[in-house]
């Protein structure tokens, strides 16, 4: 098996520095933001926001670490989260006042310096009542609040984290620079009709674009000046030369078009960095880096001005920078994305509308650089198609076989048709990139949250449809549909299930609309300026500026729901092995006692989804269609304002939400105990997929994948011995080829033994470098909370 060894001493030092940092929180951004909001109070939301970003970029702490080739920092130190009080402060106040800091958690711990806490609380008090969450909660219907408390739906992330799940037009940055963006905004301003409704808002938005673009240019110039100062003091001749080149790079980009590969890497980092500073959203992704950086790479390599290893070193410095980005979430929401994920996706490979392969030399260099760095960022994704080169497939397999969890793998043959099905033009569909975990979007043309809207808990729905809507955990009475003992036939139960899907799908859309309405008050100016056609329309992305605007929530626990309903149909309604009363009582007592265990054993022995058994898999398909049929009836809040579609896709990409959504849900008829994790993504329930990886692929591919534009998620876990000989590795490559030929949406691999993970739980300090695939993202295993760790350990270890 090929080893990927990091050779660069420079990158080793930078990597170790970032890895050694205990995650922190800084009040600096919150201080500067609040100052600007006070000073510019009364101005339009666009102008206030623009001056707030300007204030931050002009006055935040900056530094250049020794050895860095790519410069720019998110906060006062690496792995230190800025404060975003405009989205929500209640959880901050609560955690500080009740726990004293953010380091009390089981996982995703942070620490703010004690001396900053008084100022932190003062800032939070000023924002109380003004935040996105405060405004949304003031209008939230009681029924939605109760559904959120019961966790049949969950939308906290939209109200506390801001937006994200988007890829800006980095190609525009490289070819036109922000100077070109400013000129574009000026030209658009001249066309605005201020005699019609919204005209003045468009003027202010376009003014804001110019303010923020110039502030970003000036931010880069701050680093240019700092690099020059450091160069003047530097005694090492090589480092002095590097600093002087960094000075030149930062003077030119992102203001102007990039002239070299180094400038190109620096330019995309500055843009990505300011987007991370501007908004608290996550899953801001870099898109098809191997495509838009390739012209610069190719030009310099052909001219002999760029050494391949030095280019790799630049990329690895960029990946360390991505890893340094971090954001703090509430304890309750952190469970939905455990392990400090920021979901900064990079996509390589793919095909063209003519069927030609898009893979190039840079695709391989990116793959190698990520494989050697072995950091959780970027979240690397590979696009395959029927004509993908053998070399590319094998190289991806080699990186995955190291046990690193990357790259995630996708096929054009299902994703492109899914996008065409939503009205995406063919040239745009073939230019798709992965975003965040496993979702897709068209770079520079797609609005926010191609996934990441409200979560819908299918496990909780399964519980409540059997209890007439009574939630034993909270004591709340939710939608009444009947008890298990009330249903005379399976058809009665099925009608009750559809009633639940109809009702809670509507509530999830209503919650999305509430969040999106108030998110418009905090427009992301720089990001919008790099989404076509925000400048042309004079609208932010959240107001309808994007060409395409298709969003998706996340549906959690499909396998549990399918297995549960199939078990009830076969054991209770069809074959009369168990009575309704027996199963109902067993569920209410969490399978307690000898009789409860007897009933659970019978339910566990019923065939399960994930084994290529049509009569079971069709339950998963039908259950998902009950949701899809409903969600297709709705539009998002940008409908009628310009973008194409403005509807909903669907997504099995639940990140790590299967853990918190399972741990609030009672026992289910698939044999699952109460308050234990649900099935993850579109994957089978842990430990129930016993017929091998091909059977799993076949079952997952029976889901309505053409509808899943929000992303399909399939995790597979192999022990290392299954890939560590040439013969076994060939079998692994063939699994990937089978995935491609079957037109799978997504697959990813955890290649690590459960024994090793259990050892890491006992001695975390000795296993810091273990990286696992949690859901559609990777995390250091030892940073995860114990429940999520156990969930990963419990997943089926496949045999090839």
Quick tags:
800 residues; alpha/beta; 33 helices; 7% strand; globular
Blueprint (SSEs and pairs):
Blueprint lengths: L8 H11 L4 E2 L2 H12 L5 H15 L20 E2 L8 H10 L17 H11 L4 H8 L2 H9 L2 E2 L1 H5 L9 H20 L9 H35 L3 H16 L8 H18 L10 H4 L1 H10 L4 H17 L6 H4 L10 E5 L11 H13 L5 E6 L5 H15 L3 E4 H9 L5 H4 L3 E3 L3 E3 L13 E3 H7 L5 E2 L4 E2 L12 H30 L5 H5 L4 H4 L16 E3 L1 H17 L5 H9 L4 H12 L9 H18 L26 H5 L30 H9 L13 E4 L7 H16 L4 E6 L2 H9 L8 E3 L4 E3 L5 H8 L7
Parallel strand pairs: 1-2, 4-5, 5-6, 9-12, 13-14
Antiparallel strand pairs: 3-9, 6-14, 7-8, 10-11, 15-16
Helix pairs in contact: 1-15, 2-3, 3-10, 4-5, 6-22, 9-10, 10-11, 12-15, 15-17, 17-18, 18-31, 21-25, 22-28, 25-28, 26-27, 32-33
Describe this structure in words.
By secondary structure, the chain is α/β, with parallel strands linked by helices. The protein has a domain at 9-153. β15 and β16 (778-780) form a beta hairpin. α6 (132-139) crosses α22, α10 (199-233) runs antiparallel to α11 (237-252) and α15 (308-324) crosses α17. The longest helix is centred in the first third of the chain and has 35 residues, at 199-233. The protein is globular and about 85 Å long. The chain starts with 8 loop residues before the first helix and ends in a 7-residue tail after the last helix. It comes from Leptotrichia hongkongensis.
- The strands making up the biggest β-sheet line up spatially as 4-5-6-14-13
Q: Taking all residues together, what is the mean pLDDT?
A: 97
Sheet with most strands: 5 strands, mixed
* Helical segment count: 33
Secondary structure category: alpha/beta
Distance between the termini: 16 Å
The residue ranges in which pLDDT falls below 50 over 5 or more consecutive positions are none
**Share of residues in helices:** 40-55%
C-alpha-based Rg, rounded: 26 Å
- What's the number of extended β-strand segments? 16
């Amino acid at each position: 098996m090929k080893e990927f060894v990091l050779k660069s001493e420079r990158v080793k030092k930078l990597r170790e520095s970032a890895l050694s940092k205990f995650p922190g929180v800084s009040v600096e951004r919150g201080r500067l933001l609040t100052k600007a909001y006070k000073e510019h109070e009364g101005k339009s939301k666009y102008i206030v926001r623009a001056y707030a970003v300007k204030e931050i970029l002009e006055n935040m702490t900056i530094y250049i670490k020794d050895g860095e080739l790519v410069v720019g920092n998110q906060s006062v130190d690496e792995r230190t989260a800025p404060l975003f009080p405009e989205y929500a402060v209640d959880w901050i106040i609560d955690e500080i006042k009740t726990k004293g800091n953010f380091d009390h958690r089981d996982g995703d711990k942070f620490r703010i310096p004690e001396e900053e806490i008084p100022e932190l609380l003062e800032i939070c008090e000023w924002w109380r009542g003004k935040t996105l969450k405060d405004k949304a909660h003031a209008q939230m219907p009681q029924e939605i609040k109760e559904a959120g408390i019961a966790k049949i739906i969950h939308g906290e992330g939209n109200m506390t984290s801001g937006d994200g799940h988007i890829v800006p037009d980095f190609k525009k940055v490289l070819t036109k620079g922000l100077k070109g963006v400013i000129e574009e905004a000026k030209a658009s301003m001249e066309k605005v009709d201020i005699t019609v409704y919204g005209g003045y808002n468009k003027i202010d938005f376009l003014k804001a674009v110019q303010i923020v673009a110039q502030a970003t240019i000036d931010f880069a110039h701050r680093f240019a000046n700092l690099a020059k100062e450091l160069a003047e003091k530097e005694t090492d001749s090589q480092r002095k030369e590097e600093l002087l080149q960094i000075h030149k790079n930062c003077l030119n980009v992102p203001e102007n078009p990039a002239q070299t590969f180094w400038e190109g890497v620096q330019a995309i980092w500055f843009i990505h960095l300011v987007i991370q500073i501007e908004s608290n959203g996550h899953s801001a992704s870099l898109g098809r880096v191997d495509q838009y950086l390739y012209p610069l790479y190719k030009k310099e390599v052909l001219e002999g001005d760029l050494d391949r290893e030095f280019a790799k070193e630049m990329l690895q410095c960029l990946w360390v920078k991505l890893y340094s980005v971090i954001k703090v979430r509430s304890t309750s929401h952190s469970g939905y994305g455990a392990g400090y994920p920021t979901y900064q996706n990079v996509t390589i490979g793919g095909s063209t509308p003519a069927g030609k392969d898009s893979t190039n030399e840079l695709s391989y260099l990116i793959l190698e650089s990520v494989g050697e760095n072995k950091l959780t960022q970027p979240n690397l994704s590979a696009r395959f198609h029927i004509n993908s080169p053998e070399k590319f497939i094998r190289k991806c397999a080699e990186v995955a076989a190291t046990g690193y969890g990357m790259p995630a793998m996708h096929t054009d043959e299902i994703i492109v048709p899914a996008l065409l099905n939503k009205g995406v033009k063919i040239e745009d569909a073939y230019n798709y990139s992965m975003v965040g975990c496993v979702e897709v979007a068209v770079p520079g043309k797609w609005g926010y949250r191609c996934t990441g809207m409200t979560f819908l808990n299918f496990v909780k729905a399964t519980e409540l449809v059997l209890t007439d809507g009574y939630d034993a955990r909270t004591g709340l009475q939710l939608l009444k549909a009947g008890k298990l003992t009330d249903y005379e036939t399976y058809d009665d139960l099925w009608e009750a299930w559809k009633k639940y899907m109809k009702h809670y799908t509507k509530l999830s859309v209503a919650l999305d609309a509430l969040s999106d309405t108030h998110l418009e008050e905090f427009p992301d100016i720089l990001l919008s300026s790099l989404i076509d056609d925000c400048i042309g329309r004079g609208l932010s992305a959240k107001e309808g500026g994007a060409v395409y605007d298709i969003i998706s929530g996340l549906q959690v626990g499909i396998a549990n729901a399918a297995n549960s309903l199939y078990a009830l149909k076969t054991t209770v309604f069809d074959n009369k092995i168990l009575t309704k009363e027996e199963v109902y009582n067993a569920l209410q007592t969490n399978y307690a006692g000898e009789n409860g265990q007897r009933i659970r054993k019978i339910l566990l022995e019923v065939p399960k989804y994930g084994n290529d058994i049509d009569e079971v898999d069709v339950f998963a398909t039908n259950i998902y269609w009950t949701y899809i049929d409903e969600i297709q009836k709705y539009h998002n809040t940008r409908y009628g304002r310009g973008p194409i579609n403005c509807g909903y896709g669907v997504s099995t990409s639940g990140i790590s939400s299967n853990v918190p959504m399972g741990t609030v849900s009672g026992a289910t008829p698939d044999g699952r105990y109460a308050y234990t994790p649900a099935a993850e993504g579109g994957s089978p329930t842990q430990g129930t997929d016993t017929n091998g990886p091909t059977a799993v692929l076949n079952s997952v591919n029976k889901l309505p994948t053409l509808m899943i534009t929000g992303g399909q998620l399939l995790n597979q876990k192999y022990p290392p011995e299954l890939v560590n000989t040439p013969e076994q590795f060939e079998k692994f490559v063939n699994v990937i080829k089978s995935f491609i030929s079957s037109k799978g949406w997504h697959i990813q691999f955890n290649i690590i033994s459960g024994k090793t993970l259990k050892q890491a739980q006992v001695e975390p300090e000795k296993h810091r470098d273990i990286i696992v695939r949690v859901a559609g993202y990777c995390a250091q295993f030892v940073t995860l909370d114990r429940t999520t760790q156990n969930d990963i350990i419990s997943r089926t270890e496949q045999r090839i």
